[in-house]
Sequence to fold (168 residues):
Amino acid sequence: MVSWTKVWLALCVSLMASACDPQNIRELEEGLSSESDVRARFGEPEAIWDAPQGAHILEYNRQPAGHQNYMITIGPDGKMQALRQVLAPHNFEKIAVGMMMEDVRRLLGKPMRVTRFELKRQTHYDWRYRDGPNAADARIFSVVFDNDLRVVSTGSTDDPDVNRSERR
Fold:
């Protein structure tokens, strides 16, 4: 049985972390900040991905409560090369039919929800994001994978968890 106290605590920690993100981002500077500077502000990454030319990418997930996932590239010199919020339409456009699940995960970060549909032999990944600055812009981007873990389709919809009165 799920402990609601643990769920509530995880939600609060996630919300506090995402609330600190703008300040943490302002304190970091591409080309000057070190990996230890990044980790001091963001903590331990969700995942670490290899990147070209000896660089690596630190993934910082703000799902399921937040609307961002950050990918922070650390160069071979140990300095931050790039800090990107990846849950955005320009990245969603990169997802193509036939793409492997791991490649999607690497591009967008950990989803807020993974749902397996056994009868359909499909897995759905969902990410919460904002397509603008307002609560009314809260959306969910979904990717459907087949049994071979390849993309079948993608799509976006309004986030049903956003209070409908905020949308007016």
Q: What stands out?
A: The CA atoms of residues 67 and 133 lie 11 Å apart. Residues 1-18 have pLDDT under 50 and may be disordered.
